[in-house]
Amino acid sequence: MSSSTTDAIYVFSDSDLDTDDLFILDSPDPQPHSQDFSGGVKRKLASTNDSQRDTALRQRHSGGKLAFPDGIVRLTRMTGGKANVSEAVTLTDIIQPNLVRKALLSTFVLDIDWLLAHFNSSTRVVVVKSYNPKVERRGVYQSHNGRVTLVNPEFTDKQAYPIMHSKIMLLFYDDYVRFVVSSANLFDVDWTMLQNIVFMQDLPYTPSTVHASTEFGTTLAESLRDLSVPEAVVEQLRHIDFSCVKAHIVTSVPSSPGRSKYHSTSYGQARLSKIVQRINDSANVDAKEKYSATLYCYGSSMGRLTNAYLRSFYASALGTSLASVQGKGGLAPGDIEKRIKVGFHTSAQTASNAHGPTPCECIKFSSQYYADRTFPKYALYKIEPMVPSTLVHAKVILSRFNPKEGQPQTRGWMYLGSHNFTPGAWGHLKSYGSGIYVNNYEYGIILPDVQFESVFGRDSVTWNGLKVPLPFKLTWQKYESGDQPHLS
What we know:
- The active site is at 165 (nucleophile), 393 (proton donor/acceptor).
- It comes from Coemansia thaxteri.
- The structure is a single chain.
- Strand 25 (458-463) and strand 26 (466-467) form a beta hairpin.
- It is built from 14 helices and 27 strands.
- Strands 8, 13, 14, 16, 18, 20, 21, 24, 25, 26 and 27 form an eleven-stranded mixed sheet that branches.
- The protein is 20% helix and 25% strand.
- It is of the alpha/beta class and 488 residues long.
- Helix 7 (268-282) packs parallel to helix 9 (307-317).
- The chain folds into two domains: 9-245, Endonuclease Chain A (Endonuclease, Chain A), CATH 3.30.870.10; 268-478, Endonuclease Chain A (Endonuclease, Chain A, 2-Layer Sandwich).
């Protein structure tokens, strides 16, 4: 579902923008164009409790104490869900409407009126969104009397399936910026009927100071430019202190000869491999440890998987080449296939979920792909959601390996974001080292140095000294003969 408002106008010069001193926007195309963005249901979300909570947060932040200075992972709080309150958040919790001044967001599915109900009427909002290039044009638009700026990023002419699937937020407050990466789209279903996952970190923001550049800040700026975010917004990153960030950004951008000009060798699987190699080097992970890794890969959509794709992805997730993994001292193809588990909802799970048929539409797997004789059915595993009778829309990859041979898998890393476990999202490796072909825009982060342990017989995950809530239990079970994946 995509919402709209009929006052949207194409912006073709800075002088045509009704904006303020933070988001002064430019445009990539000189020709005016109109666009329709009507629909959606407005409702008042703020309450007395929200106001009291925001006042307390304002007092805390005015004293120089950030709510999430080191970064934290949370799950979305579904309607009627019984998830631990301390581990679940609503969109209102994240945005803090009485505190936020300006916001940049991106989404695949957009209900603009539902989204704006989470902000005060004076807050300026920039939204990067997906669109159909056969109907709409690339460019920058304004709607809602200049309050909203909508960005249609670049798609390639030969792209069979134009998809802008990234889900990030930069929320600007008086003296800090909240950086958010999630698996949730900006419409009601993803925040109330489906289990999604969120990473957020609060970073000091001083508009009068230019902070020293960091690798994370540079990568963030490049990733925003890849999404066609106006340069005036990107420029604000110079005033953010990224020195405490430990997470790594991994993005995907549609491939074409003239595209991917900012860090073209670092998208999808190629970027994943580079990050993991760096993690392994910093943690002194030796070859035996590395080759012991088991991957747990979950997404709400599944693509055309093959044995070859699983092997290449496993190599990327080890931070090395497929030839290296299969070389002397490595793993045989059959061993690799045993080390990668692909989680997906069964048809029985979707049929019995507590929220009815609506969330089932967001769980995607083509019956044609499943029927293909080359599809690796042996790799399919059933997941058990942490909240019973719900569906998981989160996109998560966990890598677990042994610190020493024969010991439990207690070390590893974690991915979360918008990448489903599909070749369209992570890309097809043309040949290792020569780049990849990617179809989608995607956005995620990797948390290094994740710790796994068993607490009272249940797996627990921690990062940076904090518990990481997972949307599912880690006791995955192989599909049995009577199990069928949910097919769309």
